[in-house]
Amino acid sequence: MEAMNGIPPQIPGYTFAQKLGSGSEANVYLYQQLSPSRQVAIKVSKGTLDPRAASRFRSEANFMGRISSHPYILSVYESGITATGNGYTVFEYAPGGNYKTFLESNRLNADQMLTVGINLASALSTAHREGIIHRDIKPSNILINTHGMPMLSDFGIAGTIYGRPGIGYTIAWAPPEVLAKNGGGNESSDIYSLGATLFAMLTGQSPYEYGYSAALGSTRGKERGALLRNIILTDPLPKLNRPDIPPQVERILRKALNKTPEDRYYSSYDFARDMQRAQQELYGHATPTTVEGEPPFPQNLYAQSQASSQAAAVVPKQRNTWAKPLAIVVSAVAAITAVALVFAYVILPNMDSASDNSSVQIKTPGTHDQDNDSPDSAITTSSVPSVENLAGSYSADGGSVQFTWVNPDPQDGDSYAWSLVGDAGVDPNAQGTTTTDTRISIKPADGSQTCIQVSLIRADRQMSQNPAIACAAKP
User: Which residues belong to any copy of the Protein kinase domain (predicted)?
Assistant: First the structure.
């Protein structure tokens, strides 16, 4: 039981150098890889793994390997089982430490925080598109590599491999719905935790530790954790109260940290786009996103360059006096997304089972101008047709309205996103619902008619370019 006692195991091809850290389920060591010659970090499970757990350990490493080529996700090189039965995974070594240590004596200004936020939201979007939920984003899981870049690490390994209730989140960084369920999480909870981490980059503390420091007092350990959990569940999100932080930046963080999951950003990609627009407006530049298949900048980002310049003149640029400067990687993807997403983001398919519902609420963010938002908010939809023959009628007693439609090209995994439409036409802020049926029965809207819009969603999350719209007139 070498790893159980904290003694590093012998791993062929690697020479032990020093211990780097320890968590609840694993130790992390620095090894020298013999060929190719380089330093690597190796995470070793504290307990031996039975055959099923060992299989999950390897599968997790393979899954992580699919996204570790992203410039802001820690690279995975190898995984295996030691002679003593301990699982291990070989990672890229990040000599700059992590942001928990960084924030003990440093802070980022708003511009710097937006740069880091765009990079990390890009990484998170890449993970979510592969069905990977992090579940424990926090400053200690944001590492700093050789070039000073932030690296998202430790993608929920404790929660998915060891499977114990409660493992996979840290109270200070977890959203209310995860604390209420004592575990789990989905894309929305990851967005919250990223928002909390970015909040700390400005303040040095998680949002509720920052805002309720007097109530927490000098409590420690389990008592502090229980008190903080209760505060997060019952008290309002604190304000920054920082005159040096522009209102646009605080608005973005508050949206990501909303207590209601449905009112947060509906994807980490959209989170990144909003930070780009704020950075351009406030500071006259924007950090590119790095999401495969998506353009690095929103369309029309520079359309109001004059207004942006005026804003930059009003809000002085802060000097980049970073203790550990974070490099910006200008690696742009060469795809162009030319289709507008009219009213909904598609919920990514591999959500945590604890949040599985028969119908999922979806809504298009309404925080930006629609002309600026729609081109880059779209998931590519050119190959997905619109539904046909959408029609509705009131029931005989007028208490419900039935709508039906036809899928012109049915495929396995198809679903449909629908929402009510007002008299003025398509509502970009409409609340939507997904269904796998080609008919729905709903309560009538106020007024003389009830109108809905319906879009076809493929299993790979591609969506029809334009929703079909139809109205049923009250008899």
Answer: 14-283
Residues forming beta bridges with residue 26, ordered by sequence position: 45
143 vs 157: CA distance, rounded Å = 16
CA-to-CA distance for 175 and 191, rounded, in angstroms? 9
* Sheet order of strands, 401-406 included: 388-394, 401-406, 439-442
Residues 6+ apart with CB under 8 A from 90: 14, 31, 33, 40, 41, 42, 76, 77, 78, 79
pLDDT, one tens digit per residue, over 152-195 is 998 765 444 444 444 557 999 999 999 998 877 889 999 999 99
How far is residue 279's CA from residue 110's CA, in Å, rounded to a whole number? 9
Residue type, 337: T
Structure tokens at 1: 């039981």
- The reported pTM is 0.63
CA 438, CA 418: separation in Å to the nearest integer?
11
Specify the pLDDT at position 429: 38
Q: Rounded to whole angstroms, how far apart are CA atoms 461 and 374?
A: 17
Contact 152, 142 (CB under 8 A): yes
Other beta carbons within 10 angstroms of residue 336's beta carbon come to: 11
Sign for the pseudo-dihedral over CA of 295, 298, 304, 309: negative
Please tell me which residue, 462 or 364, carries the higher pLDDT value.
462
Tokens of 269: 């990609």
pLDDT tens digits, one per residue of 207-219: 999 999 999 999 9
Other Cβ atoms closer than 10 A to 431: 14
- Tell me how long the chain is: 475
**Residue 318 contacts by C-beta under 8 Å, 6 or more apart in sequence?**
109, 110, 111, 112, 244
Could you tell me which residues are beta bridge partners of residue 440?
403
